[in-house]
Amino acid sequence: MSTVTATTSRSSTRSLLGGGDRRSVHLWLYPALAIGVLWGIALTYVELATTTTQDGHSFQHAADYWLTGLGIPLCLSGLVIVHAVHTLAAGRDGRRGRWGVWVFTAPALVFTALFIDGLVQAEASSWGPTYLLCVLATDVGLGLLVAGLWRSDLLPRKVLTLWWVGWFLGGPLGPPAAPLLLASAYVALAVQLRRSA
Fold first, then answer.
1. Among 54, 47, 56, 52, which Cα is nearest to 125's?
2. Which of 43, 53, 88, 106 has the highest CB neighbour count under 10 A?
3. Which residues, in sequence order, are CB contacts of 161 under 8 Å at separation 6+?
4. Are 170 and 180 in contact (CB under 8 A)?
């Protein structure tokens, strides 16, 4: 690993994850993956076993708070996972990976604010086209990161594919039960990264 790559990797890790070595990245990564898995199970239950209010209306059921509130761990765990995997790649994901991280980060933060606002207002709102634009941007951002990681030896291609498809189908705009696909992608990521640690 070159000095430039090592320096870039360390500074990028410190900026979000608060440390410069693989161990400190793992201290953030595995809890974020576990939260992502639990999120997928919880959201699937809420979507399939409870009654919720349609978007644009004030909350009428307790499950409305769960449905909206679960968006927060989805976005924050996704954000940590993206930054951690990028950091572990240590520059092997190239320019695509760097762009992917930042394209993913901005809408993930907007999503988080949107979900918090929904809880405070007790109303499901998408802030006009903001929700759909954020969905598209996170899909593109994660796609760029996965493309950057494609030729690296950090993760197998089937795990990278599962991660992107899991986010695309099971993430912020997924149909009921699709969050389990993202949860399974996070399990696969955890197993594979643990093997290579």
1. 56
2. 43
3. 146
4. yes
pLDDT in tens, 105-145: 999 999 999 999 999 999 987 788 999 999 999 999 999 99
d(CA 92, CA 89): 5
For 123, the 3-state DSSP assignment is strand
Query: From CA 97, how far away is CA 95, in angstroms rounded?
Result: 5
Task: List Cα–Cα distances, 101 to 14, 38, 68, 82, 104, in angstroms.
Answer: 15, 23, 24, 6, 5
Helix (H, G, I), strand (E, B), or coil: what is residue 135?
A: helix
CA 136 to chain centre: 13
Q: Is 125 left (phi over 0), alpha (psi -120 to 50) or beta?
A: beta
Residue 119 amino acid letter: L
Confidence at residue 7, expressed as pLDDT on a 0 to 100 scale: 41
Q: Is residue 58 helix, strand or coil?
A: strand
Q: Mean per-residue pLDDT for 89-104?
A: 96
DSSP annotation of 92: T
User: Is pLDDT above 90 for 85?
Assistant: yes
**pLDDT beyond 50 at 9:** no
Q: How far apart are CA 25 and CA 14, in angstroms?
A: 9
